[in-house]
């Protein structure tokens, strides 16, 4: 039985976004002393953290061993693999599974670096975005250093920069609508430790959402296939995990495009949802994503400083401790079950590192499963009361759930672009639009190609 329950949302300590110390964030770790700036407070400032768990896994790794310099544990093979040509059963109408062994890394960008924008693929995706009818706000990229280094941008409400202000557009998915529903999410994989997480989830009949990094998909395509075939939701998390607001329009298109492509090549289906790394999204990123038929998913935020991030990402680096993560989790769970909290929620976790998988399977999920009343843990698409098929373009129910581009009002031949707008609430309020140039071609030729394509277009 839990003993530590917070009395109101207003008393909740801040829960740090996992980008603390890495990119833009105004969030502070849960127990950072008042006035301590995010990104500069070592976890060692506080060494004692209080939490109460209803249950733990009998086979859990001891908390004292879930540390940055932990010895590498033995990794495990996937408990299930699927032959090429197998028809998915979890997703109605999905095509047969491709042969992952045929994946040729040389056909993709280098791993873990921002993709070049001069490839034939990216040039085509730039054209597609230009032809989409979605207006891209003319907003300059942010500079490295996050909110403190971009004070004007952070204060600009028309930019709607979630990281710095918590601003959301009405297309952003940040919660599950129904109380006690939990949209699960594990980011940054697949990894060598994902099979352990999958085995745990399978043993407990839990489905979740994996926000996959394209570079990791290249490395572990069979793991992604098992995630998908076992009924988990697969979504885009870029190619190289950059802070998207710092990139040019063309780089954002390349990062999202290559991630969509490698997932399609491995699974046969293309995700309809994406999560910006570090939650770093503004109206420019939103518009480009919309033009690429991707709906943003972030995670739940209950105050300017408190998000539903366990901060498990920072276990690997030693920026936080296992006890601190469990205190964060206890705060989150207490809030989610509070009568003051009217909706469900989306929790951010990671499957990239041994430590974050250990804390999830050993502590967070065993505790969550023992709590009363029970959480309903499910993929994010499911907590939105949509069929799993709506997680993919090829199986989406277009009649009841039009994809972003088809939901867009295409403005034909606007001379200024100022009257062009998109429906579906990208929330940009910014009538200015920018030109997305084709590398080596230039905007004039891009426009000519758009005209030749015969597609209705918005002059960009
Ligand atoms: Zn991430």
The 3D shape can be described as globular
Major β-sheet annotation = 6 strands, parallel
> How many H/I helical runs?
13
Q: Separation of termini? A: 59 Å
- What is the CATH domain class of the domain at 1-33 and 40-63 and 156-404? Alpha Beta
The CATH superfamily of the domain at 1-33 and 40-63 and 156-404 is known as Glycoside hydrolase/deacetylase
Residue fraction in strands: 5-15%
- What is the CA-atom radius of gyration, in angstroms? 22 Å
Beta strand count? 10
Ranges where pLDDT stays below 50 over 5 or more residues in a row are 1-44, 410-432, 439-460
What would you call the structural class? alpha/beta
CATH topology of the domain at 1-33 and 40-63 and 156-404: TIM Barrel
Q: What's the SSE pattern?
A: HHHHEHEHHEHEHEEEHEEHEHH
Instruction: Specify the CATH architecture of the domain at 1-33 and 40-63 and 156-404.
Output: Alpha-Beta Barrel
Bound molecules: zinc ion
Signal peptide: 1-17
GO molecular function, one term: metal ion binding
Cofactor: Co(2+)
Membrane topology: Lipid-anchor; GPI-anchor
Please give a structural write-up.
With 460 residues, the chain is an alpha/beta fold. Helix 8 packs across helix 9 and helix 10 (322-337) packs parallel to helix 11. It has helices at 120-130, 146-149, 151-155, 162-165, 194-203, 214-219, 221-229, 249-267, 283-291, 322-337, 354-370, 380-383, 442-453, and strands at 181-187, 209-212, 233-236, 273-274, 295-296, 301-303, 306-307, 345-346, 349-350, 376-379. Residues 1-44, 410-432 and 439-460 have low confidence and may be disordered. It contains 13 helices and ten strands. The chain is 27% helix and 7% strand. The chain has a domain at 1-33 and 40-63 and 156-404: TIM Barrel, CATH 3.20.20.370. Strand 4 (273-274), helix 9 (283-291) and strand 5 (295-296) form a beta-alpha-beta unit. Strands 1, 2, 3, 8, 9 and 10 form a six-stranded parallel β-sheet that branches. A two-stranded parallel sheet has the order 4-5. Zinc ion (ZN) binds at residues 187-188, 237, 241, 277.
């Amino acid at each position: 039985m839990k003993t530590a329950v917070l009395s109101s949302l207003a008393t909740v300590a801040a829960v740090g976004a996992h980008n603390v110390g890495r990119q833009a964030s105004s969030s502070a770790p849960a127990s950072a002393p008042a006035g301590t700036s995010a990104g500069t407070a070592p976890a060692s400032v506080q060494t004692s953290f209080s939490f109460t768990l209803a249950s733990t896994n009998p086979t859990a790794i001891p908390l004292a061993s879930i540390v940055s310099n932990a010895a590498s544990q033995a990794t495990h093979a996937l408990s299930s693999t699927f032959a090429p040509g197998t028809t998915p059963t979890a997703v109605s109408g999905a095509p047969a599974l491709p042969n992952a062994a045929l994946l040729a890394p040389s056909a993709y960008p280098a791993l873990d670096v921002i993709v070049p924008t001069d490839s034939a693929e990216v040039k085509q995706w730039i054209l597609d975005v230009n032809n989409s009818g979605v207006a891209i706000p003319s907003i300059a990229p942010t500079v490295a250093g996050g909110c403190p280094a971009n004070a004007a941008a952070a204060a600009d409400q028309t930019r709607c920069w979630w990281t710095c202000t918590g601003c959301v557009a009405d297309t952003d998915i940040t919660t599950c609508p129904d109380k006690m529903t939990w949209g699960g999410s594990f980011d940054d994989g697949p990894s060598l430790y994902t099979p352990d997480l999958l085995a745990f989830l399978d043993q407990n009949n839990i489905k979740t959402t994996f926000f996959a990094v394209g570079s990791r998909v290249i490395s572990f395509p069979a793991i992604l296939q098992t995630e998908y075939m076992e009924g988990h939701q697969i979504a885009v998390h870029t190619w190289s995990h950059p802070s998207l607001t710092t990139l040019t329009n063309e780089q954002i298109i390349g990062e999202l495009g290559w991630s969509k492509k490698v997932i399609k090549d491995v699974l046969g289906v293309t995700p309809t949802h994406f999560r910006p790394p570090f939650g770093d999204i503004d109206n420019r990123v939103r518009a480009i994503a919309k033009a690429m038929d991707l709906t943003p998913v972030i995670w739940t935020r209950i105050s300017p400083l408190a998000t539903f991030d366990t901060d498990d990402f920072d276990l690997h680096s030693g920026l936080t401790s296992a006890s601190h993560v469990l205190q964060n989790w206890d705060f989150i769970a207490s809030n989610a079950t509070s009568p003051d909290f009217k909706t469900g929620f989306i929790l951010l976790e990671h499957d990239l590192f041994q430590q974050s998988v250990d804390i999830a399977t050993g502590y967070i999920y065993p505790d969550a499963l023992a709590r009363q009343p029970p959480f309903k843990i499910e993929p994010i698409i499911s907590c939105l009361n949509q069929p799993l098929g709506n997680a993919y373009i090829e199986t989406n129910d277009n009649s009841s759930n039009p994809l972003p581009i088809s939901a867009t009002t295409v403005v034909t031949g606007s001379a200024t672009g100022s009257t062009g707008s998109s429906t579906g609430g990208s929330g940009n309020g910014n009538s200015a639009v920018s030109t997305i140039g084709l590398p080596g071609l230039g905007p004039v030729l891009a426009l000519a190609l758009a005209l030749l394509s015969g597609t209705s277009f918005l002059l960009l």
